[in-house]
Structure formats: C-alpha cells, structure tokens
Design brief:
The protein has six helices and two strands, in the order ααααααββ. The termini are far apart. A two-stranded antiparallel ribbon has the order 1-2. The protein is an alpha+beta fold.
C-alpha cells in the first residue's frame, strides 16, 4: 500500500516479488486494492445477504403444478413461464431464481423432450417426467 501512496513508481514495484512469493496473478493485487479502497478492508464481508434460502417443500409442488397445467395445454413449460406462473400465484413472495428452478427440475427427473404435434404440423417442446 505504501508503494501505491508513493506514486506507483515502476522501478520500486513489489508486484513481481509478491507474485513469486504467493503464487498469484498480476491482476490479484489490483482486485485486492480495489476492495481495500471501497470497503476499507480486504476481509470478506460476513453480513452479505446473498440469495434467500427457499423452502422446496413449498415451491416444489407449485412448480410441478405449473408444469402440469402447461402439459394439459400440450405446450412447453419453460422456466421463464414457470416463474411467471409462480409470481401470479404468490405475488408477495421472493421467488426462486430461474437457475434454482432448473436445478430442482433436474433433481426431480423433469426434462424437456421434443413432441410432434399433428395439428400444428411442426415440432413443439413440452415438459415430460422421466
């Protein structure tokens, strides 16, 4: 830090020695300095909230219900549609992210298959339980 405050003279740079000593890339020190200047410390912030934990015993049956509703219509049930359906059923709730829903579907054997639909004369995707 003293080298930075002194004006970053290239000939006085300790970066090459620090890279060799700690086995890190050159960019590591720039990120570390940016973190130090924004937060005042290089320590991780333990109070960072992140995404909330979801109760899958609550959301799982709702996701399955949304998929079944689309199946009855013989239409695809993409994750974006499932999220919209969940939002309409529970407008005040914090929804699981699209990635979390996708992972839940994979864990529970739900995947997308191609189905030929005669009336449309084309291929359509729909959700199917394995």
């Amino acid at each position: 830090m003293q080298w930075v405050l002194a004006g970053r003279k290239r000939r006085d740079s300790p970066i090459q020695e620090l890279m060799a000593e700690h086995g890190v890339s050159r960019n590591y020190f720039a990120r570390l300095l940016a973190k130090l200047s924004t937060t005042g410390s290089v320590a991780n912030r333990p109070r960072r909230r992140g995404r909330p934990k979801h109760r899958w015993d609550h959301w799982g049956p709702l996701i399955a219900r949304a998929i079944q509703a689309r199946r009855r219509q013989r239409r695809a049930a993409p994750v974006s549609h499932i999220r919209k359906q969940l939002a309409s059923w529970e407008p005040e709730a914090t929804l699981p992210s699209a990635e979390q829903i996708r992972r839940w579907m994979i864990e529970h054997g739900l995947h997308t298959v191609r189905v030929r639909v005669e009336a449309d004369h084309g291929e359509r995707r729909r959700m199917h339980e394995a």
